[in-house]
Amino acid sequence: MASGSRWAPSAALLFSPRARKGGGGGWGVALKAIGCILFAGVSFRLLCSFSSSSSLSPEIKEGKCDLFHGEWLPNPSGPAYTNSSCRFIDDHQNCMMNGRPDIGYLYWRWKPYECDLPPFDEVRFLASMRNKVWGLIGDSILRNQVQSFICLLSKADEPVEVYHDKEFKNRRWHFQSYNFTVSLLWAPFLIKSEVSENENGESTSEIQLHLDVLEPTWISQYEGFDYVVIAGGQWFLKTAVYWENGKVIGCHYCQDKNLTEIGFEHLYRRALQEALRFISSTHHKPVVLFRTWAPDHFENGEWFSGGTCNRVSPYRKGEYSGKYMDNVMRGIELEEFNKAIAAVNSSGGVVNLKLLDTYSLSSMRPDGHAGPYRMFHPFAHGNEDASSVQKDCLHWCVPGPIDAWNDLIMKLVLN
C-alpha cells in the first residue's frame, strides 16, 4: 500500500462502497431449526446461566445495571433477520451469501450482568422516532452498524433510499410510514481530511489532516439532526501529514519526509477534543451517542501479513484482554469523553451526550467477523481454499454480533 501506515487496514477492508440489491442464499428458512439443534449440546453451566438470568426483572435491576459489561449467552431463537429477509446488507458483510459454512455465531445474545438487554423492537423504536432525523457520522465500521440498523428497522417499514453519492459513502433512507430519516455521513477522522486513495488503498500522496477544523460534511448538516451517532478510530492509524493554523506541524509514519513525527495518539485525542467541544458548545442540542473503539481480531499476523480470524465461538470472561492498540485508543476515548462531560457540568451547561461503549462486548466476539467470507469467490463454487483471499477481521458479518450495538442504542435512547 503506497503511503499506508503499517497499522492501517487496507481501503478494501475499511470501506466496501456499494450495497447491491438482493440477499442470496435460501438458508433463512431452516435457520431457526438448525440453531436449536446446534445449541442442544451447550454446557449445563451456560444453560443454567441463561435460564436464571432471563428471570431477572429489567425494571428492578435497571438502576444499577451497566449495559456494557456482561457475557454472551446462547440464544436458540437466532437473529432478528437474515440475509434473505434483508436486502440492505453490503456484499462484503454478507457472510452467508459469500459461503460461510457455519452459523453458530448467529446464536448468541449479549447479557449485561445486572439486568437484561431487550432485543431491538422496531415498531416501538419507529413509533418513538416519528418525524425525527438521525445522523450517523464516521467510517466504514459505522456503515457496518448502519446496515444492521436498517435491517432491523425494515422489519416494520420498508425504507426508501432517497440519496447516495457516487461512491455510496454518504447515504440517506426515509421510512415513509413514520416520516423517519436515517442519514449516513462519511467522516472517518471527524476532522477535515484530504485523502487520495482508491478502493485498493493505493494513494498518490499522504493524507492531509487539519487538526483544528472539523469535517464540513457533518458540521453543515448537524442542526438538522435530532439524534447523532459519532464513531471512528481505525483511520487515525494511517500515514498522514498534520496541519494546524494553516501550517504543517508534523506527520505520522512519514519515513521519507523531513517532518516531525507526531503519534496517532495525539491526532486522535485532538480530533475528539474538537468534535466534543463543538457538540458541547453549539446551541443545537440533539441526543449524541459516542460509540467507542471497534476491535479487530487478527491472529497469526495482521491484514497485510496473512492474519486470520477462524474462531467459531465467543471468548468467555477473562479469556481475552485486548490488543495494545485497543487499550490505547479506548483509553483516549474514555478520557476525552469524561473530560467533556466534566467541562459541561462545571460550566452549568447542557449536553445530551451519552457513551455507547461497545468495546467489551465486541472484543469477546472473534467469531463474528467476515474473515475470508468478505468475497463471493472462491467459496461460491465449492472451492474451500481461502489462502489467497485477504481476510477481514475488522468488519462484522450482518446479521451478527453488531446487532447488539443497536440493541444498546434502543435501550439508551428510549430509556
Automatic annotation (TrEMBL):
It comes from the Eukaryota. This is Uncharacterized protein.
